[in-house]
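Here comes my example:
=====
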Amino acid sequence: MTTILPVTKSASVNPLKSSQPLGAAFAFLGVDRCVPLFHGSQGCTSFALVLFVRHFKETIPLQTTAMDEVATIMGGADHLEEAILNLKSRTKPELIGVCTTALVETRGEDFAGDLATIRARRAEALAGTEVVLAATPDFTGSIEEGWSKAVVGMIETIVDRTPQRRDPRRVAVLPGWNLTVADIEEIRDTIEAFGLEPVILPDVSGALDGTVPGKWIPTTYGGTRVADIRSLGSCVHTLAIGEGQRAAAEALEAVAGVPFTLFETLTGLKPVDRFVTALAELSGAPVPAKLRRRRSQLADALLDGHFHFGGKKIAIAAEPDHLFQLSTFFVGMGAEIVAAVTTTGTSPILRKVPADTVKVGDFGDFETLAVGADLLVGHSHARQAAERLDIPLMRVGFPVFDRLGAQHRCHVGWSGTRDLIFEVSNIFQANVREPTPDALNPLLNREAVHDRRTPPDARAH
């Protein structure tokens, strides 16, 4: 079993993780006509906004309660109520997602009680708008946990609790935060190929796919409709993707009685086989010919690409679900994980990462552990480590701000796994260091060779 190494230093050097409220806002951005609201200072919101804009290169409708010194001391319920009412009157959203920050969490306020009071007192003014709370202090957790809390909050607040008639063609899909726009589109296409209707929560492929509306819209544009969230109880089954979505799947089962199946990853031949087999069982239909052809293409890519992976040393820095997805892919291709760094040690999926140890830390830890690796895998903040170590970097995750198209790279399904094999193989081929005549000449540097072969004790004598 993998050993989890906890944080051992007081300061973070080039942080790896993004905060919980950012993760919650990310999930809310996948809902149509939604406005995420940070309950905290303007600075907390500005920092998250900058990361979102740099990653997606899109307009992000992120708002704040703008807590000042007095409100922080006296309590922020009035600021929260004022912000919600202003958003309702000015932007007319169908959903306001409240993400708490460390500033208000450290005071220990009863946010759930405050929101219940606001809903009751302002029921007429807030008609037609759902308000969902995600308690996400910055000082703990990470983007993955924030995303999960927001999805759980939407399910527990919005989903209709009255018994609903099951639709045998309708399935709920709960994607992990690490799935890109292209990943979710691939999952949707695969499910629809079986004649099933997927309801994806949240659906960033509809809201953050780069579509430009014909006019300015103050809320999110596209994504999961609130009406579809409300009727999730009519789904016949839930497909949860990533260990981080287990809590959301369990919440939907508790609220509406919808059973679920958890898929830890959808990258790789066997994981996708399991996913497609589940779809065939749910639909009662055979696997379509076009999907069988994709599997055949992946099998050929495995044959073509495994020569480039064998014996390669890989260093990965990512959130738990993403770390598991990437590490199992590389090990399955014949590579070795020599450094695995993550953001939090609470996820049970870390015990299944195919590495001797997983370090909870930052890019400072990552740079130390990655010495001698053939490839670094992480988001854009790993670029300094890659430059200092002179090791190529494959950019994945969030944020990726120094390359275009991060959201349109697909790494799931048979097609996505095939493309990932080609992407990594091309990085290896582009960074092959051909041997020089001097390096191959056994008569040069004989003293250095002798020193390497002679035991230290023998050299001393």
